[in-house]
Q: What sequence folds into this?
């Protein structure tokens, strides 16, 4: 009984994935981008302008990935608003907070919020390492993602 349910779930996931791939094939990103630019108020906010320019530049050079460093997730959500054709890696940098009794890091909540936004793939940076070590780990992750795209394992996102 459970084997049948699991196999039906796999079939369902496969069908949903196929439907999403077909829907992405007919989506006109250029028209959507122009419509979003027109609907944004004048003058544009600085962060909004940077996000739209990043998406436009990534589209023009046919980038395979957009990497966003953020602590609140707002910049990544603004980039995802313009629906780029490539995935957006959102690296959330945790912040250290204190209430004079206890120290705590925030960032996990922002990374979880990014999971529901189309095209965002959040990653929570490790707050225990120094800046040089975390930069090394981020470069290792980016290199491994690049290798996956070259091999074609992670390229299934692009249509």
A:
């Amino acid at each position: 009984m459970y084997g049948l349910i699991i196999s039906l779930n796999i079939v369902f996931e496969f069908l949903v994935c196929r439907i999403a791939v077909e829907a992405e094939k007919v989506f006109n990103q250029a028209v959507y981008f122009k419509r979003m630019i027109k609907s944004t108020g004048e003058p544009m906010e600085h962060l909004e302008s940077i996000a739209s320019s990043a998406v436009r530049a990534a589209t023009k050079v046919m980038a395979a990935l957009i990497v966003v460093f953020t602590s609140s997730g707002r910049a990544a959500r603004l980039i995802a608003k313009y629906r780029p054709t490539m995935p957006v890696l959102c690296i959330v940098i945790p912040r250290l907070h204190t209430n004079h009794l206890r120290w705590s890091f925030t960032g996990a909540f922002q990374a979880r919020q990014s999971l529901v936004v189309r095209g965002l793939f959040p990653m929570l940076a490790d707050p225990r390492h120094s800046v040089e070590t975390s930069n090394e780990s981020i470069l290792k992750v980016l290199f491994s993602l690049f290798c996956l795209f070259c091999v074609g394992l992670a390229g299934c996102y692009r249509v």
